[in-house]
Amino acid sequence: MSFLSRLREDLDTARTHDPAARTDLEVALNYSGMHAIWLHRVSHRLWQTDRTRGAARTVSQLGRFLTGVEIHPGAQIGRRFFIDHGMGVVIGETAEIGDDVMLYQGVTLGGTSLAAVKRHPTIGDGVTVGAGAKVLGDIQIGAGSAVGANAVVVKDVPDDSVVTGIPGKARPRTPDKQEPLVDPATYIDPAMWI
Fold first, then answer.
1. H or E segment at 35?
2. Which end of the chain is more exposed for a tag (fewer CB within 10 A), N or C?
């Protein structure tokens, strides 16, 4: 995939996931989550070569300084990844994130070991992780799952699950739980009456 195609895909993803996004220019200039992802792509490329790993860490820390999002350059991230609001997101070195994943602010994909092994979570395709959630250790979050806000997840989660609570408990994600609670075509904002 070419650089411009990837850029277009990122901008389309942001506009799909955030109804407040009005234009591609607005997203490109103002979305810290998008900036963090772009800087991660640069740092991850540098991480692939031993002699440029120091530069990779520098780019990664620059991204953290500029965006409030810390993504280790070793983390593997799929396509159409989106971080909404961004601030306080931490993604560890051995984390693996599939395609079409969305994280909200304050999410930690953290480790539970100090050993140089796979110690961060693997997030399946199409997963949404709510604000403030902590997903810790070498665990799997199954494709199509949703992690609730402020949940603390330390065990594997099957595909198509909803995880809530501390510690996180999974239940099947039924089709009615995958649809928005409000139909955007018929929704009337109550603020219009103020």
1. helix 32-47
2. C
Q: Give the CATH number of the domain where residue 64 resides.
A: 2.160.10.10
Return the amino acid letter for 75: A
Q: How many domains does the chain have?
A: 1
| Mutual angle of helices 53-67 and 32-47, in 10-degree steps | 170
Q: E strands of 19-176, at which residues? A: 70-71, 76-77, 82-83, 90-91, 96-97, 102-103, 108-110, 122-123, 128-129, 134-136, 140-141, 146-147, 152-153, 161-164, 169-172
**Distance of alpha carbon 116 from alpha carbon 56, whole angstroms:** 18
CA atoms of 144 and 157, how far apart (whole Å): 11
The separation between the first and the last C-alpha atoms of the chain, rounded to the nearest angstrom, is 48
Q: Is residue 119 part of a domain?
A: yes
Cα dihedral 109, 66, 100, 179 in deg (nearest 10): 90
| Nearest C-alpha neighbor of 113 from the set 154, 82, 173 | 154
**Contact yes or no for 166/149 (Cβ under 8 A):** no
Asked whether residue 80 is assigned to any structural domain, the reply reads yes
26-68: pLDDT as tens digits: 889 999 999 999 999 999 999 999 999 999 999 999 999 999 9
